[in-house]
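Researcher: Quick test of sequence recovery. Tokens follow.
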């Protein structure tokens, strides 16, 4: 078989890199000595006289290519008719019709004697240049010891060299495990999974400290029998805290959990009691029942650019399963891989660039939740969590469920057509298991949660969650309890477009800011608050909620508790109920808001609200009074408000001398109000 060579990047040049114009290049069958190959032909088949290749003025071969009819295994080129230039070596050529070879570096620097010698000396050395065989592969003889029987780059274990079947026809579990175990025994290393299909029938695979498990882009590991696919360590180990098998990097390829075929509840990658773990650039398909990734009792975790596509709930009892779950070593029922169950939570976690979606596989469906947690233990909150820049769609429940997370940032995520959007929750005192420590002792009530930032998210078309309390469902929810307030909360610069329930709801929250959010087409109240205090709701834009625009409900606060909430500079258009509604509470400031087109009142203040100020607001086009203060309210101060095109203007009880209403415009458009 004749072999074709192209002009490439080789040129005749001096040792200092200057071209040799019009040199004659000769072709040889060895790097040194050997025989000159003279039977060379042009691409159209004409004989090249003497086999000498003419160079142009820049030292490059003039012909676009040439043919070796004899198919000599390896050819070497030098810019000399007799095959020898002092200090310059011959250059190994790469045929154009053979798979890619490592030759570009050689050809590019062929004229520099020192570099050529360096390249020659590096052949077969770790990280060096190899002479490839006829198929473009590195011959085993040129590889240093590393795999079974020799061959393989130092520190890299190729699972095929361990006899893993890349066709999927036989069980590859033992072979892949042997590579992982060897890496673990060596104190770490790279386990390489080349392209192919690898069947796991006797898992789980177990990965050990310091291992880099690297799948080629076209490598697929498929679960063909019940069981978790990958676990960090052994069932009988007893590493507490974060002292288990860590320093792990898992990346590339596809993990196919095959849940439509093997339906028993299992997960794909399960990590516990570890420190410094990265999982990135991989695809996880069709998980049955549990999770694509579970990080349990893990510190310094990064999950980057992982796609979790497809979930199978064959029994119908796992509608809450997260694709990516953070959990703690709280009890065996939440992490069955190994103990100890010392209540270690997760901390210092980054989940970014990930996608949670459906797979389209017949028989699979949407995930229960995208990213989150659903179990807890007293005094052990997950902390320093960053969920940033992910895309989550079509989950049955929450896209992000931050249960007992503190010091958490949830930002720049896109969420589409999920049962609910972002949910933050302090410990749920109604769940006895979550109130119980591993030693069996228990607490009463909930526990305080602090440091929550929810910003720059886009949440489109959330719906409802079957069986969930309406107070816990919406596009963005922050939910505490009277015994477990959520504190230091920022919800800002989010966009919510379409929600079957509330747009943004907070309850039992203190010391907070809700600012610059845009909410449109909300199926209930746009911004709803229950039992909140010490907060600011400012500069939000609200359009077309079926309920009220903003509500501040303080009816469940303890008697005498100051609400201390400011509602400032919000714009509310087309509310299906009231523009702003205040229930009970004290020390409220409602100032400089605009309400246009509410079906009910522009602003309604009721249920014993007191010691509050409503000032400089603008209300227009309401079905009822522009501003209505019921006769249960006391010590109210109203001034500088404008209500026009309304039914009733500003209504303040005249029988209660505690209330003061001055300089409010209620009769004519463009009326000038005296100072």
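Model:
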């Amino acid at each position: 078989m004749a072999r074709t060579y192209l002009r490439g990047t080789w040129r005749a040049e001096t040792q200092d890199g200057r071209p040799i114009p019009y040199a004659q290049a000769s072709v040889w069958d060895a790097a040194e000595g050997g025989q000159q190959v003279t039977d060379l032909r042009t691409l159209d088949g004409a004989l090249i006289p003497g086999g000498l290749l003419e160079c142009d003025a820049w030292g490059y071969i003039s012909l676009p290519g040439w043919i070796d009819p004899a198919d000599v295994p390896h050819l070497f080129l030098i810019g000399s008719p007799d095959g020898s230039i002092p200090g310059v070596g011959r250059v190994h050529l790469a045929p154009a019709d053979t798979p890619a070879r490592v030759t570009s570096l050689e050809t590019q620097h062929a004229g520099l004697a020192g570099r050529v010698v360096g390249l020659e000396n590096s052949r077969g050395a770790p990280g060096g240049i190899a002479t490839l065989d006829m198929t473009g592969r590195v011959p085993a003889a040129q590889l240093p010891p590393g795999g079974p029987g020799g061959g393989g780059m130092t520190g890299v274990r190729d699972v095929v060299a361990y006899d893993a079947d890349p066709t999927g026809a036989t069980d590859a579990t033992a072979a892949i495990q042997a590579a992982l175990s060897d890496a673990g025994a060596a104190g770490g290393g790279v386990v390489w999974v080349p392209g192919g299909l690898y069947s796991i029938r006797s898992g789980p695979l177990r990965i050990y400290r310091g291992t880099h498990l690297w799948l080629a882009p076209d490598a697929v590991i498929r679960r063909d029998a019940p069981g978790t696919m990958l676990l960090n360590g052994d069932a009988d180990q007893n590493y507490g805290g974060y002292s288990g098998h860590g320093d792990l990097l898992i990346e590339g390829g596809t993990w196919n959990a095959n849940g439509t075929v093997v339906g028993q509840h299992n997960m794909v990658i399960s990590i516990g009691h570890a420190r410094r773990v990265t999982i990135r650039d991989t695809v996880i398909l069709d998980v049955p029942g549990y999770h694509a990734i579970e990080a349990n009792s893990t510190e310094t975790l990064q999950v980057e650019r992982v796609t979790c596509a497809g979930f199978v709930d064959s029994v119908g009892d796992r509608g809450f399963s997260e694709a990516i779950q953070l959990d703690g070593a709280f009890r065996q029922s939440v992490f069955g891989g190994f103990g100890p169950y010392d209540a270690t939570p997760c901390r210092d976690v980054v989940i970014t660039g990930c996608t949670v979606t459906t797979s389209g596989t017949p028989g699979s469906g949407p995930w229960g939740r995208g990213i989150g947690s659903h179990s807890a233990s007293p005094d052990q909150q997950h902390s320093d969590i960053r969920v940033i820049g992910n895309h989550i769609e079509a989950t049955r429940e929450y896209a992000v469920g931050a249960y007992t997370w503190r010091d958490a940032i949830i930002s720049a995520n896109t969420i589409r057509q999920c049962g609910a959007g972002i949910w933050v929750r302090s410990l749920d005192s109604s769940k006895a298991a979550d109130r119980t420590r591993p030693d069996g002792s228990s607490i009463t009530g909930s526990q305080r949660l602090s440091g929550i930032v929810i910003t720059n998210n886009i949440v489109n078309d959330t719906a409802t969650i079957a069986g969930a309390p309406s107070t816990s469902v919406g596009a963005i929810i922050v939910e505490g309890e009277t015994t477990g307030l959520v504190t230091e909360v920022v919800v800002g610069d989010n966009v919510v477009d379409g929600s079957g329930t509330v747009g943004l709801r907070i309850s039992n929250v203190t010391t907070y800011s809700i600012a610059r959010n845009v909410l449109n087409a909300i199926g209930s109240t746009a911004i709803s608050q229950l039992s909140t205090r010490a907060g600011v709701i400012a500069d939000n834009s609200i359009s077309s909620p079926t309920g009220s625009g903003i509500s501040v409900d303080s009816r469940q606060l303890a008697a005498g508790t100051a609400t201390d909430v400011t509602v400032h500079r919000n714009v509310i258009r087309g509310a299906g109920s009231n523009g702003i509604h205040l229930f009970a509470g004290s020390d409220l400031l409602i100032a400089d808001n605009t309400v246009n087109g509410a079906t009910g009142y522009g602003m309604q203040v009721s249920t014993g609200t007191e010691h509050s100020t409503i000032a400089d607001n603008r209300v227009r086009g309401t079905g009822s009074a522009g501003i209505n203060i019921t006769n249960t309210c006391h010590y109210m101060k109203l001034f500088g408000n404008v209500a026009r095109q309304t039914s009733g203007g500003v209504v303040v009880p005249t029988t209660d001398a505690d209330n003061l209403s001055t300089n409010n415009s209620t009769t004519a458009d463009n009326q000038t109000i005296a100072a």
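The chain has three helices and 56 strands.
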